[in-house]
Amino acid sequence: MSPPIFTKVRNTLKLLVTCLMPVLLNSCSAGNPATSGGATVLPESGLIHKKILCQNNPGKSYALYLPVLQKVKAVSADEQARVGSDSITSGLNTTGQQYPLIIAFDPHGDGALPLSLYKSLADKYGFILIGSNDSKNGLPGEEVRAIIASLMKEARTISTVDTSRVYLLGFSGGARVASMAAMYQVQAKGIICCGAGLAGSEQPALYKFDYFGLAGSADFNMNELLQLEEPLTRAGLRHFIRIFPGIHAWPPEKEMEDAFVWIVLNDIKDGSKTSDPVFMREIERMFDSRLAEAKKNRHYAEAADDCREAISFLDGLSGVDKYRNELSLIEATQEYKSQVANRIKVLKEEENEKQGFMQELQTENIAWWKDKIKKYNSGLKSDGSGGGAQNPEDTLKNKRLLAFLSLFCYMNANSAIAQQNELASIKIVSVYELADPQNPEPNYMRAILLARRSDDPAAVDQLKIAVAKGFADKQRLMGQAEFISMNSTTAWFDLLKTMK
To answer: What's residue 318's pLDDT?
Structure first.
């Protein structure tokens, strides 16, 4: 069951949108469908093809998933032998029914990851999925624009793609890429943004689109999405923002399904898809069940949000008066008002805490930070879930603050290390590890600092800890300038053997 959307907070919080890309992306031009040597080459449906080279730009690639309901031609044995089993040159062009397309952007350039998470939804609702292998956090805006342009040109070569129903999907930094592309470069029908809001810009958007936002209740960017309610309404964009139990990560399939359902229902409203009475009854039963469960548990703010979601999804397709009436009754109760007031209070406290991190990171010592982080962790179980006697909303707030502090320390530690500020680096890395003890990055950073002191044994020990926590980027390890002196040692080779 999903926790409340906290719609009432939208007028109490300041809109904070972070710009990760330069503004004003150029609109890409349409092109003719391309072929490969005059022949049609189409991968097999029902399989994730991890690396397909863009025929218009072979230096770029993407992952592709065609739903199992689609009849397609398999790639020839000669073609697979030439480029490898999971790397196929594209030339996708066939006839038949057309399907909507979702282009996904992972913040780490793992195009196959979102496809693996949501391929069952693609089968169920009839979507073609593409995942960029090149778009990732930290790229210059010009390079991101080129990646998006290549993907859009490639999409036009897939004759089974309905180009009037292209959607962009992204998580975290990938969500900002998706939103920036939809505002300035791609005439997408809609976007699904997970774990981050819109990319910032001083320029008005060139295009309009539907917007579906998703964030975990323990995601440090949750507030950012909630604060979009009012500006999205002012902009006249059809939208919905959903909060689910979770952290800053790609949403689980069952949570993402709401986004797919919302898209399908909007397509029915817009006349691009035929209504199915059986499907509509299933959706109504889903909302009725959610509402009944929330009321049973006296989660009235959550029940109100279930009503709002039902109205957003079903209005214009079936009767929603029962949800409007139920919402009015719930909003009139004192328990609902108390729950919403408490959430507003908690969210304000959270923003104030975040604002204080910069100064505290500079002025407070490690003992102070240990005490502060210990308080954040009070009421949390060993797996990070809520527990103890603490107010559940406070527990979620503390989880979001710890996640935000982890990211905040990561950025500031990188900056301090790059500036050769050893004292600041040591302190920030220590706070980073306190805030996020299972993250291998603090140990990797500490290894860099130790290697700069020529303490190679201690540096290797920290790298061993990082590897034990899951660090597996051999390319980064081998290319780190501070570790070059260790490359020929036995300890170094032993370390490499332990990595996956």
So the answer is: 87
